[in-house]
């Protein structure tokens, strides 16, 4: 009798282990939370409905992941099965990534290409974000008789008129997080009044931040703008305050189209004279230490399928990377944005491209500049001193 109980106990133990393994969810880690995450979660839900594979979505920013992943990799582990991360970081740690070449073999990419290291596809661009300029509410501009500026004097005049409106705290809201919204704004000014060659020279380290042409962009354009901009505010709070009418314009990426109550009330303009805007891909990888590698690859394949990309396009806020997704798949705000960007050059974010310690320095120095514009020369000096050598 005891032997039967032992057998039954073993069988029950195996059953519990089996059920536990079966019930384990696929862990997906991305940088989005709240309303910004909703369009992506909708795609994950479609994947679950189609395959029966359950998932858990966790929000974790790249800045935090960069502190966690190296130690995990060293132990042959990973906190998730599909993880979004900076492209330069994925390339640096490529040996720890699964090869996703088969996933992207038949994908017609637009805007960007997969990240290939040593013949292996280690990072897959999923969507593209664009920082097109300053957003405004059409209803706000109409109510106050405001017009989109066509010259630098027009822009300053617009800021002055907004600042004079009763109830306005500042003409422009300044979003902040770890510092990246301020870097987006700064990079836009460099592109508009320094040009693409200056922008690329700063990115590659062939032009100094203290050079006369770069200092002039800051002194003649960015610093005067700061007279009308708020001090840094956590960017989602700044978004709400701007939408409520505390600020007139707000520089932010195109993902905000999925974060406001009425995207059809959105308008956007680049700085007068700009011929290029920054942007880049949100890239994911599958760690080779995934406990559910086969299912992780299935999810990667769904994310890049035409069905998966069309579902993401319908959610707005980002542009998908499949060239065969029709503009009609997007909400009206994204279709208008795509038309507005015709003729513009898209260049990669400077701070994301350089990355590392310098990126954090850039963010910190811009926070200082925003609250203390007369520190300009010290800021530029530090950016030169901290720029990676070699």
Labels describing this entry:
D-Maltodextrin-Binding Protein, domain 2, 14 strands, four-stranded mixed β-sheet, eight-stranded mixed β-sheet, globular, disordered N terminus, alpha/beta, 17 helices
Task: Characterise this structure.
- By secondary structure, this protein is an alpha/beta fold.
- The protein folds into 2 domains: 20-129 and 281-331, Periplasmic binding protein-like II (D-Maltodextrin-Binding Protein, domain 2, 3-Layer(aba) Sandwich), CATH 3.40.190.10; 133-252 and 355-386, D-Maltodextrin-Binding Protein, domain 2.
- The chain is 48% helix and 17% strand.
- The protein is built from 17 helices and 14 strands.
- The protein has helices at residues 2-23, 38-51, 62-74, 87-92, 101-104, 138-144, 152-163, 180-193, 196-204, 212-226, 235-244, 293-304, 306-314, 332-340, 350-354, 356-371, 376-386, and strands spanning 26-30, 55-59, 82-85, 115-117, 120-131, 133-137, 170-173, 175-176, 233-234, 247-252, 266-269, 276-285, 319-320, 345-348.
- The strands form 3 sheets. Strands 1, 2, 3, 4, 5, 12, 13 and 14 form an 8-stranded mixed β-sheet that branches. A 4-stranded mixed β-sheet has the order 7-10-6-11.
- Strand 4 (115-117) and strand 5 (120-131) form a beta hairpin.
- Helix 8 packs across helix 10 (212-226) and helix 16 packs antiparallel against helix 17 (376-386).
- The radius of gyration is 23 Å and the shape is globular.
- It starts with a helix and ends with a helix.
- Residues 1-23 have low confidence and may be disordered.
């Amino acid at each position: 009798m005891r032997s039967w109980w032992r057998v039954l106990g073993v069988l029950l133990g195996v059953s519990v282990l089996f059920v536990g393994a079966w019930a384990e969810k696929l862990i997906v880690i991305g940088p989005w939370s709240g309303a910004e995450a909703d369009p992506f979660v909708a795609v994950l839900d479609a994947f679950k409905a189609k395959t029966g594979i359950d998932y858990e979505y966790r929000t974790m920013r790249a800045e935090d992941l960069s502190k966690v992943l190296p130690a995990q990799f060293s132990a042959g582990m990973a906190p998730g099965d599909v993880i979004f991360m900076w492209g330069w970081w994925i390339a640096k740690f490529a040996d720890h990534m699964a090869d996703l070449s088969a996933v992207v073999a038949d994908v017609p990419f637009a805007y960007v290409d997969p990240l290939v290291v040593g013949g292996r596809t280690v990072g897959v661009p999923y969507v593209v974000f664009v920082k097109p300029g300053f957003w405004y509410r059409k209803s706000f501009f109409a109510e106050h008789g405001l017009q989109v500026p066509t010259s630098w004097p027009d822009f300053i005049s617009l800021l002055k008129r907004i600042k004079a409106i009763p109830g306005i705290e500042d003409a422009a809201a300044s979003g902040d997080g770890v510092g990246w919204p301020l870097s987006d704004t700064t990079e836009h000014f460099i592109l508009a009044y320094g040009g693409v060659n200056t922008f690329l020279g700063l990115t590659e380290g062939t032009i100094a931040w203290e050079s006369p042409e770069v200092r002039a962009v800051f002194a003649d354009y960015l610093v005067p703008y700061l007279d009308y901009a708020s001090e840094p505010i956590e960017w989602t709070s700044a978004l709400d305050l701007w939408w409520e009418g505390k600020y007139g314009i707000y520089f932010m990426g195109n993902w905000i189209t999925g974060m406001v109550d009425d995207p059809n009330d959105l308008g956007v303009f680049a700085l007068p004279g700009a011929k290029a805007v920054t942007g880049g891909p949100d890239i994911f990888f599958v760690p080779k230490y995934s406990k559910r590698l086969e299912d992780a690859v299935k999810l990667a394949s769904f994310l890049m399928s035409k069905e998966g990309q069309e579902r993401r396009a319908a959610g707005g806020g980002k542009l998908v990377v499949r060239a065969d997704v029709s503009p009609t798949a997007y909400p009206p705000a994204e279709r208008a944005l795509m038309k507005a960007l015709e003729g513009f050059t898209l260049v990669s974010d400077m701070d994301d491209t350089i990355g590392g310690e310098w990126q954090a320095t850039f963010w910190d120095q811009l926070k200082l500049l925003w609250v203390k514009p007369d520190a300009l020369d010290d800021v530029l000096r530090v950016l030169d001193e901290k720029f990676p050598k070699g």
